[in-house]
Design brief:
This protein has helices spanning 11-22, 34-43, 53-56, 61-66, 98-107, 131-140, 175-183, 207-228, 247-255, 262-268, 273-285, 307-317, 334-343, 392-395, 411-419, 427-430, 439-454; strands at 3-7, 27-31, 48-52, 76-80, 92-94, 122-125, 145-151, 154-161, 164-170, 173-174, 189-194, 234-237, 260-261, 289-292, 326-332, 350-352, 364-372, 375-383, 401-404, 424-426. It has 455 residues and is of the alpha/beta class. It has four domains: 3-107, 3-Layer(aba) Sandwich (Rossmann fold), CATH 3.40.50.2300; 122-222, no CATH class; 229-292; 307-454, Rossmann fold (3-Layer(aba) Sandwich), CATH 3.40.50. The strands form four sheets. Strands 6-11-7-8-9-10 form a six-stranded antiparallel beta sheet. It has a six-stranded mixed beta sheet with strand order 16-17-18-15-19-20, sandwiched between helices. α7 (175-183) packs across α8 and α12 (307-317) packs across α17. The protein is elongated, with a radius of gyration of 32 Å.
């Protein structure tokens, strides 16, 4: 991509022209006076300068600008208003002639690798030379040292011996994953500092092999990120991990115990980005992972005219001899309880439990829902793990009802509730087709469960 420094005192014209040039695939940095232009040049040397003729006429403007060492040999074009263009001025172009401006920018040969000073440092910009080209150059010259890359998303290092990349770190990542991430960066600067060989070698492939695989993985990762909506869409595990699955499937499902975007998942797990995204897509297709679309609006538990009746029923259902608010017990596999706990927080008046979720599948509070006038509804999750069924006797007696999300009531749960003379309500009977990811359906189910229990 050709990089342009556009210098124009009229801020409105500056923005319009930059937008039109960027739409044609050019990189554009902006400045509206000499100090801002010098600041831009010192942070990133452009391939070509577009300078407003009004500024070029100011005394010493061009001389002071071109005195910057980085601008030696950088061509410049003067921009003039329509109608003032003269045919005898080869380095002058009209503001309106976008095609001509683009053509002039593309005529410029991009800067290559900065010339080496003996065997000393190499400095440059990632936009001017791709890391692939730089690493091939270092490999051909059998250089040893550290290549430091600074990007907008963080800093990284490639440790090189005799031209071969032996180790890589980027942000909190290391090894192959860090190398492929760095290879995909398109902005930033680099510095190669000669030195001794690295103490650790986490990369065993040759540099040429790493580069070929890195370019393939970078393209595939970009495609999958677009397909999965890596930043905009969150995902949550909708099932426990089936038996005999690869370790990566288990790790992805564990990480998605709470909603995460694909990008957050990539930063959370140590495996390669391509492997993680491929696994995530497979789990979505198998319905083991659900998409969680972002919603800004909250859903009321009941209409305003229904709340007084709901409060009255809630007060009636509080168990005699038990203090505190109304408690509803929801029985389901742990994965479904996690989804429900996320969805219920979209209800008006809902708040997450002050205690973190337990690591063991024991009964625990999912959320509290304020009903108004000092009344609350506490939703308690009962993970259906038979080996923990002795604990169910401790929490069921104080609940107003037990609500099962499963199509068939667990035999262990049925036995415990029968011994305690507790009726179990099935969500699918109260609300056929119930989906715990839909906040409206969760609100409707809770209302119907309360009304059914009170009846």
């Amino acid at each position: 991509m050709r990089q342009i420094l556009l210098i124009e005192p009229d801020v409105d014209l500056l923005g319009q022209l930059a937008e039109r040039l960027r739409a044609r695939g050019l990189g554009v940095a902006l400045a509206n006076d000499l100090p801002s232009a010098l600041l831009r040049v010192r942070s990133h040397v452009p391939h070509i300068l577009f300078i407003a003729s009004s500024l070029a006429k100011q005394a010493d403007f061009v001389d002071r600008l071109l005195a910057e060492p980085g601008l030696i040999g950088v061509p410049r074009i003067l921009l003039v208003p329509p109608g003032q263009l003269r045919q005898d001025q080869a380095d002058t172009t009209s503001y309106e002639d976008i095609d001509r401006l683009v053509a002039r920018a593309l005529e410029v040969t991009p800067m290559s690798v900065p010339p080496e000073s003996g065997q000393g440092e190499i400095r440059g910009d990632v936009q001017q030379i791709a890391l692939v080209d730089l690493l091939q150059l270092l490999a051909m010259n059998r250089r040893t040292g550290v290549l430091t890359i600074s990007t907008p998303r963080g800093a990284g290092e490639l440790r090189i011996a005799d031209g071969e990349v032996l180790d890589s770190v980027f942000r909190r990542l290391e090894g192959e994953k860090a190398f492929y991430r760095l290879l995909g960066e398109r902005e930033g600067s680099f510095v190669f500092s000669p030195g001794g060989p690295p103490a650790m070698a986490r990369l065993s492939c040759g540099t040429s092999t790493l580069l070929m695989e890195g370019m393939r993985q970078t393209d595939e990762v970009a495609r999958l990120r677009d397909e999965l909506g890596a930043r905009a869409t969150s995902y949550i595990a909708a099932s426990d991990c089936p038996e005999d699955e690869p370790r990566l499937v288990e790790d992805v499902l564990d990480a998605l115990a709470r909603p995460r975007t694909a990008d957050e998942l990539l930063d959370e797990l140590p495996q390669l980005d391509l492997d993680i995204l491929t696994t995530l897509r497979s789990l979505v297709e198998r319905n083991l992972v659900r998409r969680v679309e972002r919603h800004s609006a909250q859903v009321p538990l009941a209409a305003p005219d229904q709340l007084p009746l709901l409060r009255a029923l809630a007060a009636k259902l509080v168990r005699a001899g038990y203090r505190g608010p109304l408690r509803l017990l929801v029985a389901a596999p742990l994965s479904r309880l996690r989804v429900l706990g996320h969805t219920v927080l979209r209800l008006v008046g809902a708040a997450a439990s002050a205690d973190p979720p337990p690591t063991a599948p024991v009964p625990h509070e999912l959320a509290q829902i304020r009903l108004g006038e000092g009344q609350e509804l506490v939703l308690v999750g009962l993970p259906l793990v038979d080996s923990f069924s002795p604990l169910w006797n401790l929490c069921i007696p104080g609940a107003a009802l037990v609500l099962s999300l499963e199509e068939a009531i667990s035999p262990a749960l049925a036995a415990v509730c029968e011994s305690l003379e507790f009726r179990v309500l099935k969500a699918t009977e109260l609300l056929p087709g119930f989906d715990e990811l839909e906040a409206g359906q969760v609100a409707q189910l809770l209302r119907q469960a309360i009304e059914q229990a009170a009846a």
